[in-house]
Amino acid sequence: MKHSCSSRSRNRLTPAKAVMQEDSGQASPSRPAPEPIQIGGVYRDVEVMKVQQYGCFVALDSRTQALVHVSELALGRVGDPSTLFQAGDRMDVKVLDKNQKGQLRLSRKQVLIDDEASSNGGSSSEATAPPTDTQNAQALHPQSHNTVI
Q1: Model's pTM, two decimal places?
Q2: Residue 131 and residue 124 in contact, taking contact as beta carbons nearer than 8 Å
């Protein structure tokens, strides 16, 4: 006998259902509802959950994971996100936008720009070239990129 739907797949949340449940604002009895994600908000020290060729998935809170696209990971070009991050690493991100499907658009690059501007008193007097993948990786993991001569 062939079943049309297994008990496993009935309980599985599709991305659309997950977004709808998150937006419903209902808290489960076991844990309170997390603070709503703010457009323009900066989230510090969020955990990288998964690294793909196209970017990193990070956990903004206990219920919300979102993608930081490869183009938003660093000031310079990033060819392979795994040269910079691996699961368990932490980064700061800014929420740029939310599309009609409820997907968040995040940027680490914007946080780097904002942090540099605030440390320079709001202006950048020197024009510098964006860092390369290797320079970005060395800044994040200096002990893992030592060269023995």
Answers
A1: 0.61
A2: no
